[in-house]
Design a protein that fits this description.
α4 packs antiparallel against α18. Helices cover 78% and strands 0% of the residues. The chain is mainly α and 461 residues long. It has two domains: 396 residues, MFS general substrate transporter like domains (Growth Hormone, Chain: A); 52 residues. The chain starts with 8 loop residues before the first helix and ends in an 11-residue tail after the last helix.
Length: 461
């Protein structure tokens, strides 16, 4: 049966609600890239402070997702989706009206917590709402494509919004979307059978603290005056991470059940998804910095320069990706997508001092626009659909935590690399692009090694 014929009117509304929120959540990972200079000038933030406007969101997003994934299993995904939507919307308002750097960074962290609650709940709701293979594959395909589109659209629309309405508008646009979405939450499948057990609060505190300490320490290594303290914090973060794993192995109700890592689709997807995040999110930031700081683009011009990424992403998602999934399988699509991303980032690594947009920037943007949706589609569904429904939330949390942590650490490390390496600013950016290309290429290789399956076809229409 054609998967599209399995979608009734209610199914389409459920999918629209979930995927629009997915787009907004991922849009907020990149939307402020081109607004960073304006935010810095308005709030008196230097590069390290601006890095935390980005990383507060990404690290809170990744740090709280495991707890949120288990909460979706224990308390119900619809309930947690509602909670996450309220938190995300209120935090967006706080960020939009922030009058100080401290308030903005705090609001971004709260936004990240809301996003962390939303993502596992979304995936658990998708598995509950779409039960036949064709409908489920199509739903996951649309969900993944919207995430990729959000990451690309964030950079594209951030510039015009900043120039026309000020930097606060990049956060305030979330308010009407959040309020409207709350009005339709009752359409979602009701919470059914829940996982027994308590939430692992000690594990959540230990794991989240470890990620935040590691993220701060990596960024602080670039400042010579505090480098010894940063190195000590790096060691502390690693110790906390080891303590988290030790606790999870012995907890009666673990936040991150280690047994799930014995499932290759879960462990392999987590590793590859970390590389997906570490490669593509810093690429958008690096490209915005290159266009504005070396080519002297305005914020709007910088945003429009990456618009082809979003346009190509949407077209490919609706045409070529479904056909490739049906004919080749998800792991091949994922490997191809990461290979194209590596080629795009390698192209950006050769950007000259004086660029011609059509020759130097556009080809890489098109390659990235093709590669992003292919990677997003192929990396999440295998993990969520390989476990029991009662573990769907935590499986989603594990895989998406990996991407968020990869994104946060990738942004910190590659921006630091760009600042430290090279005889001039452009050379540093080129080296960082080259490293991003290497991360994407490594992800493609690990996809073949870890996620390769039988040549069964995926029914997506």
């Amino acid at each position: 049966m054609d998967a599209s014929s399995e979608f009734g009117a209610r199914d389409r509304l459920i999918l629209l609600l979930i995927t629009v929120i997915e787009l907004v959540v991922f849009l907020d990972t990149t939307v402020l890239n081109v607004a960073l200079p304006s935010i810095g000038a308005h709030l008196g933030l230097g590069e390290s402070g601006l890095g935390w406007v980005t990383n507060a969101y990404l690290l809170a997003f990744g740090g709280f997702m495991l707890l949120a994934g288990r909460a979706a299993d224990v308390l119900g995904p619809r309930r947690m989706f509602t909670v996450g939507l309220v938190v995300f919307t209120v935090a967006s308002a706080l960020a939009g009206f922030a009058g100080s750097a401290a308030l903005l960074i705090a609001a971004r962290a709260i936004q990240g917590i809301g996003a962390a609650v939303l993502i596992p709940a979304q995936l658990a709701l998708l598995t509950a709402a779409f039960t036949t293979p064709g409908a489920r594959n199509r739903a996951f395909g649309v969900w993944s494509a919207m995430g990729a589109a959000g990451a690309a659209l964030g950079t594209a629309i951030g510039g015009p919004l900043t120039d026309l309405f000020g930097w606060s508008s990049i956060f305030l646009i979330n308010l009407p979307v959040g309020v409207l979405a709350l009005a339709f939450v009752r359409l979602l499948p009701p919470d059914g059978t829940r996982t027994a057990g308590a939430l692992d609060v000690p594990g959540a505190i230990t794991g989240t603290t470890a990620l935040l300490v590691l993220g701060y320490a990596i960024g602080a290594l670039g400042e010579a005056s505090i480098r010894p303290a940063a190195a000590a914090l790096l060691v502390l973060g690693l110790v906390l991470l080891g303590g988290f794993v030790f606790w999870e192995a012995r907890s009666p109700h673990p936040l991150m059940p280690l047994r799930l890592y014995r499932i290759r689709q879960v462990s392999g997807s987590a590793v590859v998804n970390a590389l997906v995040g570490a490669a593509h999110v810093p690429t958008f930031a690096l490209l915005a910095l290159y266009l504005q700081n070396t080519q002297h683009y305005t914020a709007t011009e910088s945003g429009l320069a990456v618009l082809p990424v979003a346009v190509v992403n949407i077209v490919i998602s609706r045409t070529l990706i479904p056909m490739l999934l049906a004919r080749s399988g998800a792991w091949r699509v994922l490997a191809a997508g990461l290979t194209l991303q590596a080629l795009a980032m390698g192209w950006f690594a050769r950007l000259p001092e004086h660029a011609t947009y059509l020759i130097d920037v556009l080809p890489g943007a098109i390659l990235l626009g093709i590669g992003l949706p292919a990677a997003f589609v192929g990396v999440t569904a295998p993990a969520v659909t390989s476990v029991e429904q009662a573990d769907a939330g935590i499986a989603a949390g594990i895989v998406n935590t990996a991407q968020r942590v990869g994104s946060g650490l990738g942004v910190t490390a590659l921006l630091l690399l760009a600042d430290l390496v090279g005889a001039d600013y452009r050379t540093g950016l080129s080296v960082a692009f080259a490293v991003a290309a290497g991360l994407a290429g490594l992800g493609a290789g690990l996809t073949v090694a870890l996620l390769r399956t039988s040549p069964a076809r995926v029914a997506v229409a």
